[in-house]
Design goal:
The protein is of the alpha/beta class and about 230 residues long. It contains 9 helices and 7 strands, in the order H-H-H-E-H-E-H-E-H-E-H-E-H-E-E-H.
């Protein structure tokens, strides 16, 4: 399955131009080359990268209408941040991760592909949420980084009032446990969209959940990670 076929099967063709397709193909090749020296992904086949990294990342684009600033918490090797930056140049994307070697790849890809609308932030989400970054993003996303209640406390403090936290998961099993964490940090559950990600040899279950920021987050959040993990909201 080619990248274009992958986008067609997943209903994403409206976002793909010839120029963007070429950049995404180059990104996939760079990822697999770089992965030989630095472990960024368990995927080794291009068709898997097309579906499980590129198309999967692109699935949040319908949720980013009107968004000008996006923070990707725990971006790893740059997913969804790199594909989003390529597919929507109007969004200023910040890729955050605590592991510098992963962000090194994001910067390498940015330089090689000439991506102008992405920056990186090295550190832990609970430690970087200070003046200047706190409540400064239209949208914040996280892709399978931690449990949903933990993600709410880590991510929602970065969202502007009126903005949105977008959680990318495989299902909505954790949703019931996250209502209080979202409410405590200033957001309310908005909607959940279940879908199948069409891959080469399977249809993988996926879920996107959105939380609307309705009030300012108290300064005591996020707490230290050990506390968040042992006593989730």
């Amino acid at each position: 399955m080619t990248l274009k076929e992958c986008f067609e099967k997943n209903g994403l063709c409206e976002y793909l131009t010839a120029e963007k397709e070429e950049k995404l193909l180059c990104l996939c090749r760079l990822l697999l080359e770089y992965n030989e020296k630095v472990n960024l992904t368990a995927l080794t086949e291009l068709s898997d990268v097309y579906a499980k990294h590129i198309a999967d990342s692109a699935m949040i684009l319908p949720f980013l209408k009107g968004v000008k600033t996006l923070l990707d918490v725990g971006c790893g090797g740059g997913f969804p941040s790199l594909p989003v930056a390529i597919l929507n140049e109007d969004i200023s994307v910040t890729a955050m991760d605590s592991t510098k070697k992963k962000l090194d790849f994001v910067l390498y890809a940015k330089d090689r592909l000439g991506i102008k609308n992405i920056t990186v932030l090295n550190g832990r989400a609970e430690e970087l949420c200070t003046d200047g970054k706190r409540e400064s993003f239209d949208a914040v996303t996280a892709r399978a980084v931690a449990s949903l209640p933990v993600l709410c406390e880590l991510c929602i403090p970065y969202v502007k009032k009126g903005g949105v936290f977008i959680a990318m998961k495989t299902d909505e099993k954790e949703l019931q446990t996250a209502y209080n964490a979202a409410h405590e940090t200033g957001a309310e559950f908005e909607k959940s969209v279940l879908y199948k990600l069409i891959c080469e040899n399977e249809a993988a279950e996926r879920c996107i959940m959105t939380f609307k920021k309705t009030k300012h987050t108290q300064n005591k959040y996020p707490r230290k990670y050990a506390v968040i993990k042992s006593h989730p909201l």
